[in-house]
Write a structure and sequence with these properties.
The complex is a heterodimer of chains A (329) and B (306). Chain A has 329 residues and is an alpha/beta fold. Helices cover 31% and strands 20% of the residues of chain A. Chain B has a domain of 207 residues: TIM Barrel (Alpha-Beta Barrel), CATH 3.20.20.70. An 8-stranded parallel β-barrel of chain B has the order 1-2-3-4-5-6-7-11, surrounded by 4 helices. In chain B, helix 1 packs parallel to helix 3, helix 6 crosses helix 7 and helix 10 runs antiparallel to helix 11. The chains are: A alpha/beta (329), B alpha/beta (306).
Chain lengths: 329, 306
Amino acid sequence: MIRPELICPAGTPAALKSAVDAGADCVYVGFRDETNARNFPGLNFSRKELEDGIAYAHARGAKVLVAINTFPRAGHPGLWQGAVDDSARLGADAVILADIGLIDYAARTHPDLRLHLSVQAAASNPQAIGFYAERFGVKRVVLPRVLTVPEIAAINQAVAPVETEVFVFGGLCVMAEGRCALSSYATGQSPNMNGVCSPASHVRYVESGKGITSQLAGFTINQFGLNEPAGYPTLCKGRFNANGKTSYLFEEPTSLNTLAMLPDLIKAGVAAFKIEGRQRGRAYVAAVVQAFRQGVDAVMAGQPLPDINLDSITEGGRQTTGAYEKAWR
Amino acid sequence: MTKNDPLSPVRLTLGPVLFNWRPEKLRDFYFRMADESDVDSVCVGEVVCSKRTPFFAPFVPEVVERLQAAGKEVVLSSLALIMSEREAVQARELTQLDGVLVEANDVSVASMMAGRPFVAGPLLNIYNEGTLAYLRDLGAVRACLPAELPGPVMGTLAQTGGIEIEAQCFGRLPLAISARCYHARSRNLAKDGCQYVCAEDPDGMDVDTLDDEAFLAVNGTQTMSYHYLDLLAELAALRGLGINRFRLWPHNVDMVAVAGLYRAVADGLIDSGDAAIRLSELCPKAEFANGYFHGREGHAAIEAEL
């Protein structure tokens, strides 16, 4: 059995320290610009903060991965190429890329820089993974959240020694990642082009006598009663009318939690477990990292999984194992 | 004169039918497009859901033959999301056919086509010149660009890419693809037992907000725009950007007439404003948008500058 690395999010230097202290094997971060898919105000790292973060992590045996996983704007590749150059120069352990052109640049310019394929590239089969591995030397692929555990196991059989990484906790894209333009259709800004989905700048909560309506760019995404907490209007987690009824047509407001599935995922040969949430605070990062650290260590030691309740930090208090189980489809 | 020269002739591509139409209806649709339409290229093939593929497969040879006999270039479009071994086998079979161009809508298919001519489909992520150049060197002879790209970005790619660029110009936009079937989910079914309910909506299932504002459309595992893209008024601007190939997504309307309108406007034979009125008559249920071209939200309808 491979002992999977635990890959933890850090949106700030403080969260990086929390993740490392809580037992992360790797921390992933982004620069403070549109080169990464969590381009949110007040988040992410300057070059100096990355340098310091790498020093902190390396001193404690942890690695730092830099996500540069939006798609460079035509005519302006410099911002993205510079992010790759600076990651290499500052000693990042790997960069996480999505765009074919940028991966090609990284492979040619920095042959010693370790390349991971971002989930935003949505490589969902062995042929696609082989394309990135054989042509650019990509060492690890973050799998899109569309695959079942048996499909993941089959991919691992087919692509070894290329490693796979899967999401184990946090926010859940229900569409194949990097292949969704719903956000820009509503707001003009998308994950691929701007590093944001359902951006806060376009969110409004409208109160009426009956309750609160959450809107994204003027479109009603959900409605809540007076005593209900109003959730964030992520486009694909809203309620809509279709086929004569109202429902959470795409997905309920929910969080991915695979703690109970860790033995299956380890058996499937996954090399790394990723926790979503660079936009989350230190407390979230520390709690989730500790839970999964205990979980992975227990499975590897042949012990029963710890019973850890993460309800308080899931979206809407709801959890799902998502596409890992076929019935989700 | 290169293909992206504004003086090049206009080419129209009929995109693949994204919806689940009955196989006989689909066959007859292609026969009519072969016999009567003024399009240059016709895409055939299931893009959205591999469960649909077997039904039309027996009709593909006669459809391809009829289209080719009518002088149309035939393009076989691949699935967009390939997850299972069965889907990978389907894709590989596609790439082993002779005499037709393959449109790759997943990186795996582009990879299988390496060294041979293919079309980079609109569901590949081509956002910049680096990726376009890489795919060109791999064998791509044409690229249909993603829905959300603004006009000037498309122009940059047309002018620097060195291969023919195609712009999506008409129809509901493919916005997202998933492993989950929302058509089945809307009927409280799972994908495995979907009963092919997507066939009930030949133009997709409308998705409205809680205040009944038209918003999106669902086509099985695909999510689309509610609005129909219409770039009739932008065709001249597209040609100015060096883009001369225009994709029309098939809908359950008179596509021969729709193609005729686009041809007439592109050739300067009729005014785009008059054509827009005619298009509304051909698509009485559709609302139109062009926001992405203008660098705005995709659902926006921007008045053309006079």
